[in-house]
Amino acid sequence: ARDPAGRRAVTRVAEELERVVREERTRLVATLVRLLGDWDRAEELVHDAIVTALETWPRNGVPDNPGAWLATTARRRATTVRKANARKAARAARRPAPRRRKWTWPC
Fold first, then answer.
1. What pLDDT is stored for residue 5 in this prediction?
2. For position 97, what pLDDT does the model report?
């Protein structure tokens, strides 16, 4: 059976990523929890960074410091999320409050 060089390269990248995730995952999540204060969101952002690595590393090669690459990718995404949430909150604050109805009791 033929095993194209591309498939071997992807396998090597996946194996390296698996190793890095095993070693760095706890540290990555902890860093993001401190940054965001949200455990679930931190987990999601680490997962997003892993997916990005799976898409990027086969094309560009494994970076010299893959743990730092994952941390930077996840932190940048966290910053983007925080800014988006801040914009959303600012828009909500500018929205006028709903008018309250006056209740009158039937006499």
1. 67
2. 73
